[in-house]
Amino acid sequence: MYKLAFFVPESHLESVKSAVFASGAGRIGDYEACCFQVRGEGQFRPLEGATPHIGKTGALETVEEYRVELVCEDHRIRAAVAALVESHPYEEPAYDVWPLSSLASLPEA
């Protein structure tokens, strides 16, 4: 299992989540479209050569965004990231992927 977290502006929150869920991510047992999301503020400065969706090259920009976290099975993680990148409005979407441990793999207390 993996945890996928990504940042997306509110304008594209539902469409990006839908694309990632369509890849099979966000399933927990008999539930689908499972995620946690929280609103925050992202910051970036587009460098020369960038084609930013928001902001101008060389100018520091802050944007209200959502951080979305969900789980994803091993065999679906590449498709989930591809769906995220394809549906995201940013040229370089920010995301994290990390493996999760199961309770069975943890040492006894």
Automatic annotation (TrEMBL):
SUPFAM superfamilies associated with the record: NIF3 (NGG1p interacting factor 3)-like
Name this polypeptide is given: NGG1p interacting factor NIF3
Source species of the chain: Salinicola lusitanus
